[in-house]
Amino acid sequence: MEIEILKKSDIESYKALIDECFDGSNNISEYEKYNPKANYKIVVAKDGEKVIGSITFYKLDLFTFSFQPVLEIFNVAVLKDYRGQKIAKKLFEFVFDYAKKNGYKSINLTCLDTAIPAHKLYESIGFTRASSVKYNLYLK
Fold first, then answer.
1. Given 6, 11, 99, 137, which is the most exposed site by the fewest CB atoms within 10 A?
2. 2-110 belongs to CATH 3.40.630.30
3. Rounded to an integer, what distance in angstroms lies between the CA atom of residue 135 and that of residue 99?
4. Domain extents for the chain?
């Protein structure tokens, strides 16, 4: 298994992962807009040429508070057939290493209240539950 930044050549395999783990996603044309030099990184775990897991982080290089700059994590996913093999933990270790090497002071993530297995994973690798409430406003 390899852990690396997503390459353009892996877009279709990455989309298949996201489709399986999140019950569908955007059209492939949206994925083809991926820019490896953008202000976010998609990190993937690969079994040969197949993307079997991923984690995305967005870089927030703000300076207002002592916990900044910060990385915001989302879209943590591992194919069902590969779960239980510590793939997510290895993806997080890649992000933790990136954060330390690049001067980030904290890492945040948001998780659904009902995703209890994910809560256990996050807490087992050092995250603590924050006392905040997330709000969304979807624009038409």
1. 137
2. yes
3. 26
4. 2-110
Distance CA 86, CA 12 (A): 24
Tell me the three state secondary structure of residue 19: helix
Q: How far apart are CA 44 and CA 42, in angstroms?
A: 6
Sequential pLDDT tens for the chain (140 residues): 999 999 999 999 999 999 999 999 999 999 989 988 888 999 999 999 999 999 999 988 776 665 668 899 999 999 999 999 999 999 999 999 999 999 998 899 988 888 888 999 999 999 998 877 777 778 88
5 touches 42 (CB < 8 A): yes
Q: What's the pTM value of the predicted model, to 2 decimals?
A: 0.87
